[in-house]
Amino acid sequence: MKKLLDEFKAFAFKGNVVDLAVAVILGGAFGKVVTAVVEIFLNPILEALPKTAEGGTGFVGSLISFAAVVVEFLLTALILFVIIKAMNKAKDMKKKEEAAEPTTKVCPFCQSEISIQATRCPHCTSELKD
Question: What's the fold here for domain 2-99?
Fold first, then answer.
């Protein structure tokens, strides 16, 4: 039972699972924001379009509702794309910052790896001009 619990903890707290959970939560939150934008700004414009002669919306109303859903999906996808792109760019910048200066170099005479600050090779005792 302990092995099963340890395996579950290893799975649940992997970076990918946590990232997925955050993405789902953010997606739900942005879905609500986009829904509000569509309902507040887009639907009044679409509802101002001419109605059928009977006063109902009929097929045109269904088309308007479908268009609102498509626009909502596209806005959500666009917002998530921009956020993910920004997060990936931030990760790349962090990785570049973390790339450390080299601490070793190769002796041009004996091809041994030596400290970057060395002025003489400890293996072949050659003087280094760098």
Answer: 1.10.1200
